[in-house]
Design a protein that fits this description.
alpha/beta; Beta-Lactamase; Rossmann fold; 2 domains; 7-stranded mixed beta sheet; 7 helices
């Protein structure tokens, strides 16, 4: 059975997972169907009886600590982050206001993505890119390739001897509980939680004097990235891309790609598959 401490939800006690939590990547709940676990190799296993719509609704309420209103900003983005850094994706009927998603109703499915702390998973990237001096890095990879886990391990390594700030918009990188990180993010690493990346980058520059800023899943934040780099701060950010070619050509990243000293792609399970340095 999966350890209760790993996933802080009483409403999923009917789930039976015998694999170690370190091997589980996702737990997927769907109304009217059994729960399915997905391990780090992509293998799917049925691990419960059917979940009713009422049980899914109860689980969603518990995820939101029985105060859905308090989590409306996260819900509008399609997820809620649990203590421990686990992110729960939401499936249901979108409620829109002025053409934008404001919330979800009729919740029919939940995808619990398990946060993993893997010490040493960024060692190769660290040795090849950061062993001499800090630089700016754009890190690409497919969904579930381990980008967040590698960024966290990079923060830990870099935070041993550099001033690092994590812009932790979703609370996954630091797994902060009431502002205090619960995962090892490095001796000299600070976490700014809950703020948008562009805003967080500027806050960090103004008040925390970072040498390096790290953020997950960068998007249309070119102005803030440029401002940070013009101030002498090195940026490490991730983006969805299966190859360097995709990273260079995608609308959301082609404008920021030239700002970075290096770009890297993760293959399966966080392994470095491509690396490019500017000017090479």
């Amino acid at each position: 059975m999966i350890k209760a401490a790993a996933i802080p939800l009483k409403s999923i006690e009917k789930i039976r997972i015998t694999d170690p939590i370190s091997q589980i990547a996702e737990i997927r709940l769907r109304a009217g169907r059994p729960c399915v676990s997905v391990d780090v190799f992509g293998k799917m296993t049925t691990c419960s009886a059917k979940f009713s719509a009422e049980e899914i609704a109860e689980c969603f309420a518990e995820i939101c600590r029985y105060s859905v209103y308090s989590f409306e900003d996260e819900i509008a983005r399609g997820y809620v982050t649990l203590d421990g850094g686990h992110r729960v994706g939401i499936c249901g009927t979108a409620v829109t206001k002025q053409g934008k998603i404001a919330s979800f109703k009729d919740i029919s499915g939940l995808n619990i993505r398990i946060a993993h702390e893997v010490f040493g998973c960024a060692d190769e990237l660290y040795e090849r890119v950061f062993s001499k001096e800090p630089c700016s890095l754009l890190l690409g990879g497919k969904p579930m390739s381990g980008k967040t886990t590698v960024l966290r391990d990079l923060a830990r390594r870099l935070g041993e001897r550099r001033k690092v700030v994590l812009i932790d918009s979703r609370g996954e990188l630091s797994a902060s509980v009431r502002g205090t990180p619960t995962l090892d993010i490095g001796l000299n690493t600070d976490a700014l939680c809950g703020c948008e990346k562009s805003e967080g980058i500027m806050l960090a520059i103004r008040s925390l004097s970072p040498e390096i800023i790290i953020c997950d899943e960068i998007g249309n934040d070119e102005a803030a990235l440029e401002q940070a780099m013009f101030c002498g701060v090195k940026m490490i950010a991730s983006a969805h891309a299966a190859s360097l070619c995709e990273l260079k050509s995608r609308t959301s990243t082609r404008g920021i790609y030239p700002l970075f000293d290096c770009a890297a792609i993760l293959g399966e399970r966080g392994r470095l598959s491509e690396l490019e340095r500017r000017g090479e």
